[in-house]
Amino acid sequence: MGWRGGAACATRARVEAKLYYRRNLPHWYPRGAPLFITWRLFGSLPRTVLELLERNKKLSEGKRFAVADAELDRASTGPQWLKQPRVAALVVETLRRGQEMKAFELHAFVVMANHVHVLLTPKLDVVRILRGIKRRSAADANRALGRGGKRFWAEESFDHWCRSEAEAARCQAYIERNPVKAGLVARAEEWPWSSARNTGL
């Protein structure tokens, strides 16, 4: 499936950039660049994995993501609220609402049992966008689950800006094929909570 993005990807030569903070460190991304973002449910990674990542701080962001994402796909521990169709639907609704309100351009998404992958091009501040998505979806999900104001999402998220349209296409494919990789479906479009199910987003 080809890249469906409407915005041009940023290149290394582009100097206009936006600063935000992750892990209390300054983090830059070029304006107009598609961002691959992953966030997870609170308590969805076992302590052994968290301790492993803490001990190996020299691991690249990519390797840290690979370790965490593989564990999340196994879904061997922690909450799996997103397996419930009504909860997954609330997350998808929040993403669609953000696009309708022009906070971002949504290129791809998938809601798994305990985490979410998205590819989007921000139109507003990234921190503000992610905070809004997580806050709204957490409130709606907790209400549906009868959990009151309990913590829903883990605070930390992973993000990576795409340097080219080819990289954006790879991220899109990674996102939409995640349920296939996890052994949940045979074809990406069979997963109901994914942009692969409806490429019109």
Largest pleated sheet: 4 strands, antiparallel
Percent in strands: 15-25%
Q: Sum up the overall morphology in one term.
A: globular
| The CATH class | Alpha Beta
Describe the structure using short key phrases.
22% strand; four-stranded antiparallel sheet; 201 residues; 6 strands; globular; 6 helices; Alpha-Beta Plaits
Architecture overview:
The chain is an alpha+beta fold. The chain has one domain (23-190): Alpha-Beta Plaits, CATH 3.30.70.1290. Helix content is 37%, strand content 22%. It is built from 6 helices and 6 strands. It has helices at residues 47-55, 61-74, 85-100, 126-145, 165-176, 178-181, and strands spanning 17-22, 25-30, 35-41, 104-111, 115-122, 153-161. The strands form 2 sheets. The protein has a 4-stranded antiparallel sheet, with helices on both faces. The chain has a two-stranded antiparallel sheet with strand order 1-2. A hairpin with a 3-residue loop joins strand 4 and strand 5 (115-122). Helix 3 runs antiparallel to helix 4 (126-145). The chain is globular, with a radius of gyration of 16 Å. Mean pLDDT is 87; it is low at 10-15.
Ordered list of secondary-structure elements with their pairings:
Layout: E1 17-22, E2 25-30, E3 35-41, H1 47-55, H2 61-74, H3 85-100, E4 104-111, E5 115-122, H4 126-145, E6 153-161, H5 165-176, H6 178-181
Antiparallel strand pairs: 1-2, 3-5, 3-6, 4-5
Helix pairs in contact: 3-4
